[in-house]
Amino acid sequence: MMPPDALERLRLARSEGVGPIAYRRLIRRYGDAGAALAALPALARAGGRAVPPRIPSARAAAREIEAVAARGGRHLFLDTDAYPPLLAALEDAPPVLAFEGDTDLLARPAIAIVGARNASLNGRRIAAELAEALAGAGYVVVSGLARGIDAAAHEGALRAGTTIAAIAGGLDRPYPPENAALQARIAAGGGVFAEAPLGTAPQARHFPRRNRIIAGLTLGCVVVEAALRSGSLITARLAAEAGREVFAVPGSPRDPRCLGSNHLLRQGAHLTETLADILDNLPARAAESEGGQFREVLAPITPPSARDHEPVAVDDDGRAALLSLLGPAPVAVDELLRYCQLSASAVMAALLELEIAGRVETLPGNRVALVAGSAVS
């Protein structure tokens, strides 16, 4: 069952200037999505935006929900029972996800397997074998449906159990196109997540966002063949930042596709050759199994529902002072507080206004950066 305010939540999540972190802060400040929606135009004006932000209509949100349901899918909303609890623990967890597949899988422990698109045959075989072994042991294998290692991991998992794919575009835009049939098989026997609405073609900026979903859904991330600068290493870094385990399969130092995974090993990732190398290094979990379901031992997650204290008003001079301290490189909000003359509540209020106005971006780790092209005055 969707929450009674599903339309308002979806409209807020799809509104211009509202990222995942801003969404949570808006809910905390105003108490619910409807009140937050009503506040958006005034927040944008206070942040220096002349034109109100684009807010989808209730009818547009209803059409999106109906279109996903027509495909046999559903929307999962943050701070509801259906939402994956491990993913909800991320500071920038998606406010809403479109999902096709079996939602019962979301209660089971999951492991990510990711790696190079131009993977070697040996790398693909290792990924498939590890995925098959994990699935046979009762784990859901999560990957990104890309060519190479991702596709091999999905195929291996389907042989012995099930798998979940997190994709960068909408559910109706499989990428790469040759994996459309694989996506359909995964949706039928596992699950497919998309943060983007239907019709969204995947772009470069969507893939790091997809990678955080892969990392957030899982207890750990296994990297099989990855270059030093690759999306797979981004996923591994996000997993480590979220407190999840990182595993890497060693490879030849002469193969550029293995330099990234070997680098992870030097940084302390678990050397992985067999299923035992993964299982022996996972955090404790309750092997409470009812019909194959598992419950993870997690720290309690505080839902973003409690109201914040009333924000402190900030004038134009205060916002200008904050903007003058920002640049395109992210800085910690704590550092901003040391250099400005505003209280913490005033800084947070001003940053929210500036983000809704499209002038700054809030990032995980309580960091903030100036959006490219934003005027500093």
Question: What are the key terms here?
Answer:
3-stranded antiparallel β-sheet; 9-stranded mixed β-sheet; 3 domains; Rossmann fold; 15 helices; alpha/beta
Short description:
This protein has 377 residues and is α/β, with parallel strands linked by helices.
What is the CATH domain class of the largest domain?
A: Alpha Beta
If you compute it from the alpha carbons, what radius of gyration comes out, rounded to the nearest whole angstrom? 21 Å
> Oligomeric state of the chains?
single chain
CATH topology of the largest domain: Rossmann fold
Q: Helix count? A: 15
Report the mean per-residue pLDDT as an integer. 90
Secondary structure class reads alpha/beta
Describe the overall structure.
This protein has three domains: 6-98, no CATH class; 102-295, Rossmann fold; 316-370, Winged helix-like DNA-binding domain superfamily/Winged helix DNA-binding domain (Arc Repressor Mutant, subunit A, Orthogonal Bundle). The chain is built from 15 helices and 14 strands. It has a nine-stranded mixed sheet with strand order 1-2-6-5-4-3-7-8-9, with helices on both faces. Strands 12-14-13 form a three-stranded antiparallel sheet. It is α/β, with parallel strands linked by helices. 41% of the residues lie in helices and 15% in strands.
